[in-house]
Amino acid sequence: MGRRAKQLSLGVLALIFAAGVAAAEIKRGPITNLPLPRYVSLKASKANVRRGPSLTHRIDWIFKRRDMPLVITAEHGHWRRVQDRDGAGGWVHYSLLSGNRTVIVEADMLPLNVRPEPNTTIAAQLELGVVANLGKCHPEWCRLSVGGYKGWARKSDIWGVGADEVRD
After folding, report:
1. CATH classification for the domain delimited by 104-159, as one of 2.60.40.10, 2.30.30.40, 3.60.15.10, 1.10.10.10
2. Phi and psi at residue 101, in whole multiples of 5°?
3. Tell me, what's the pLDDT at 136?
4. Is residue 145 within 8 Å of residue 133, measured between CB atoms?
5. What is the pTM of this model?
6. Which superfamily does 28-100 belong to?
């Protein structure tokens, strides 16, 4: 094997190793085999949040906001351990959760830009705490829709999407 072929082989092996390491670092849920942690939304308008993963565990509080974004941190049978943006959470039955992605606005009067650029026309301004549907995400911007308005917001001003998450 020539010197160039050996270099190419070593390069390919390095890429395969790097991909394997990246794949090994992704924690997967034992029930769904989906990545953990992962974002979801609350399907129901009311969800009991329990101390443990069964109906026999005490209800610590109740989530009362339909479409609220949550992050799943663990799985056990039909139960998912979730947290909201403030870190409050517990165990919720999986039937109360949805894979539809939403985010919550963390900056008051957040500009919803027409394009994913800082100095473009503003389609709307969103108040602090507004829950919006999540669309495409670029490294720094995400497309949101809420109340008939659509536009782009800075990822750093919303909660419910990973900092390095890209969505098509």
Report:
1. 2.30.30.40
2. -90, 130
3. 97
4. yes
5. 0.82
6. SH3 Domains (2.30.30.40)
